[in-house]
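Here's what a typical entry looks like (Sensory neuron membrane protein 2):
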Amino acid sequence: MCGIVGSVITVAVGAVLVLGTSLIGYVWVPKIVKDVIVSEVVLVDNTVQMDRFEVIPFAMNFTVRIFGISNPDVVMRGGVPVMDEVGPYVYRLYQTREVLEVTDHTIKYRRHEHFKFDPVLSYPNKEEDLITIINVPYHAIIQVAERLYPRLMSLLNLAMSDVFGKYNEPIITISAKELLFSGISLCLPSSSIVAGVACEIIRGIAADARNIEIMPDGSLLFSVLDYKEQLPSEEYEVMRGTDDPANVGRILSYGESRYFSQWPNPPQGGMSVCNHINGTDSGIFAPFVDTTKSLYAINTDICRSVELRYELDTEYEGIPTKRFAANEWLLDNNEQCFCLNYTTGLNRDDGCLLEGAMELYTCVGSMEAGYSGAA
């Protein structure tokens, strides 16, 4: 009898231990782990994660590839250009966030970026490499002037040499550094009255362009990326995740607006889906990612929210990660609201740019009207 009772007690104790172990292993431990993860990502004052949020503790690689023209003489005679991809030119991108205001559940800030050329990762390419390319400001100014000021084109034609100086050609050869950062000079001081009038018109055209700067002497300087180095971003307002960790980093407004304004809205009224601001600033994402759902982040260089789809499980320096990416479908131009019908020469029958290109006239201004995903 005692043996039977002892066996029953042993079985009962074993069952309790199994149940307890199961609860610890499948309920309590995952909850503890989840709570620890949450505590490491929610943006709380005086924490490591807030420090990392303000100063990203590592540099990212910013890679630039440029398409050069290998047969400029043929092109100038009306031939088809042969394009060569040049690069990569790799820059180490350092980012900080300047916190402006913190409330119980939100934080406002501006982003600052600093680029440093990496000669090792770029080898054998150098910033001093000469590349023959389309003269971007030359073509942009002519195209916009033709559309906005057709009666003044004869005036602009008379002033071209004074306006563009040594860059008065539709195709130019410049260094990678000039194109990206140090810039192409326009409208240098001149005694020509005609050039003065033309440059005043050009300053008006360029007023909304982020990548052209008015210099102290009144001249203009165009570059592709220098404005990102010189100017802070617009103001972000995002969730801190204190109410729900799934909301950490989610943007409530950018530039004091809950929507982009660069893309046309439906004629019947309402807000175009292309103007919606979704996701984060791409530097922070919520924990516990669901691979069956897309991630979203805004890209202010192209003034849109970018959908990132799960691709595969991978790792970074031994740490398991999940890869999300935006691929060719991002620039398929099937969303008609991204079609502005401003840029000419790369259009489909419906007026949208060809697949792989995106029209940016209303985003960065007239000085950089097109973007190619391949670049």
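The chain has two domains: 53-229, 259-372.

More examples are in the samples folder.
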